[in-house]
Amino acid sequence: MTTSTTTGPASTTSTTQPWVLGARPLPIGADGNPEVLPTPPPLVDRQLPTVDLLPPPADGAFHASVEPIDAATRDRMGATWHEGCPVGLADLRHVTLSFVGFDGRDHTGELVVAASVADDLVSVFHRLFDARFPVEEMRLPTTADLTAPATGDGDDTAAFVCRNVRGGTHWSSHARGLAIDLDPFQNPYSSGSRVIPELASAYLDRGEVRPGMIEPGDVVTKAFASIGWTWGGSWRDPVDRQHFSADGH
Question: N or C, fewer C-beta in 10 Å, the chain?
Answer without folding.
Answer: C
